[in-house]
Amino acid sequence: MTATELVGHDDIDALIMRLRLGTEASELHGSLCGYLAGGGSLRGTSVLGALQLDGEATDPSPDDQALLQRLARQCETELADPELGFEPSLPADDRPLTERADAMVDWCRGFLGGFGLAGTAAHAQLSEEAQEILRDLGTVAASSFDFGNEAEDEDALIEVQEFVRVAAMLLHTECTAHDPSASGTLH
Question: What global pTM score does this model have?
């Protein structure tokens, strides 16, 4: 894998398995995105340290540390993308609907946890819209989906995914606007 390749869901999943983190790939991606969107800084700390994740394995190898740093830079770049290119890391569209829906719930759970870990002063200054978005993300994170009509369920998941995608970018924009030092947290 070259430095220019995007870190995908399967890459994150393999990393989690190697480090025995006890989390899901979507949840880890959500946690990192929530931490960065909430204004968290990775200066002077590792990704796993910032997210308070400990694996059963020993310290990450240099390759795994580099992968985590690349993932963090990728998340930060995508969250701030003026072309709105950010996407939550979820299983591929050819995976079963239930697996993708569960991953969306995991991603939102992780996002909220990471957002809370960021703990910046910007959180106290969130607009009413941003506070409502956080409540809505909490609703998704607490969801359990009932499936009936596959086409309708697929459309509903796409709508939820689009809401979550835009919500993460809006929260990132609002929190980094309140805390200029939060942008450019990685080099």
Answer: 0.89
